[in-house]
Write a structure and sequence with these properties.
A two-stranded antiparallel sheet has the order 1-2. The protein contains ten helices and two strands. A hairpin with a 3-residue loop joins β1 and β2. The termini are far apart. The longest helix is centred in the C-terminal third of the chain and has 29 residues. With 289 residues, it is mainly α.
Length: 289
């Protein structure tokens, strides 16, 4: 037991003194205030930030799943994404969803018959995978729209989502590095551990409850359950991207964010969790009322 504690202490010290941790921390301290301000301002500023982030993420996705996909077609795909997100955010969310379906079929056809690529399904999947999450994020932050009625305060529920995703990521990283132990899914992501998964869920539940309490969620007794579910979903999103990177034989989708990789590396959990929260609120409305 004493040896185990000593090993944990050594891992704790080495973690917080490593260059990678310092780099991740500096990047997080820069990105976090930007994200918080963007969510707080909402409206056009938030929508524009979502569109830019999702366009970069789609570019990274396409370069990962189909490196031979032509630059022209990558530009077309990103243009389609920007168009449907702009329409969904500024005009009609329902129209944005319909365009998402139409553009996905078009992108599949373009990649299949225009290039004869065997990875056409994965290329086309990038639009609903990333574009669907973008529409969900804009719908949650926008609140009441002609098609969907989301409860107030909209910034509160968005901060709730972000807190859970961030806490899941940080908790999984810290607990996994310090405690170690049995691997969660060694064939998909050798570095992820069961202890990290549990730590991520625990920290997400604490942070989700705290944020929901601060912003006055009426169904506060449901928050812990929703936080746990969203944390698990967020970690599944992380595992999915890890699986895709393993298939592509790459470590990171990009190098835009020092210590974190690309934009897709940073928002993989958010992509899954945002859709899950949207569906939960739309069909059940059990977090804020």
């Amino acid at each position: 037991m004493q040896t185990k504690r000593l090993n944990m202490m050594k891992r704790f010290i080495s973690l917080f003194t490593s260059n990678n941790f310092k780099l991740r921390t500096i990047s997080a301290l820069i990105m976090a205030p930007i994200a918080i301000i963007t969510v707080y301002l909402g409206s056009f500023v938030f929508d524009a930030a979502v569109i830019v982030a999702m366009a970069i993420a789609l570019y990274e996705w396409l370069r990962m799943v189909a490196p031979n996909f032509s630059t022209r077609n990558v530009s077309i795909a990103c243009g389609l994404l920007i168009g449907l997100l702009a329409i969904g955010g500024l005009i009609s969310l329902t129209l944005g969803v319909w365009l998402l379906a139409v553009f996905t079929v078009f992108l599949f056809t373009l990649s299949k018959f225009g290039n004869g690529l065997e990875k056409s399904s994965w290329i086309a999947f990038g639009l609903p995978y990333i574009g669907g999450a973008g529409l969900a994020l804009m719908a949650i932050r926008a609140g009441s729209t002609p098609e969907f009625q989301f409860p107030e305060p909209n910034s509160g529920i968005m901060f709730f989502l972000i807190a859970i995703v961030w806490a899941s990521d940080v908790g999984a990283y810290l607990f996994g590095k310090i405690i170690g132990g049995r691997k969660l899914a060694p064939r998909i992501s050798p570095n992820k551990t069961i202890s990290g998964c549990i730590g991520g869920v625990f920290l997400a539940a604490v942070c989700g409850y705290a944020v929901a309490h601060v912003f006055g969620a009426s169904n506060i007794h449901y928050v812990l359950y929703i936080s746990i579910i969203l944390s698990v979903v967020s970690q599944l999103g992380d595992l999915f991207e890890s699986h895709m990177k393993r298939k592509a034989n790459i470590k990171e989708t990009g190098d835009l964010i020092p210590g974190h990789g690309g934009v897709l590396d940073r928002i993989d959990g958010l992509l899954f969790a945002s859709v899950a929260l949207f569906c939960t609120e739309y069909f059940f409305g059990i977090v804020w009322q």
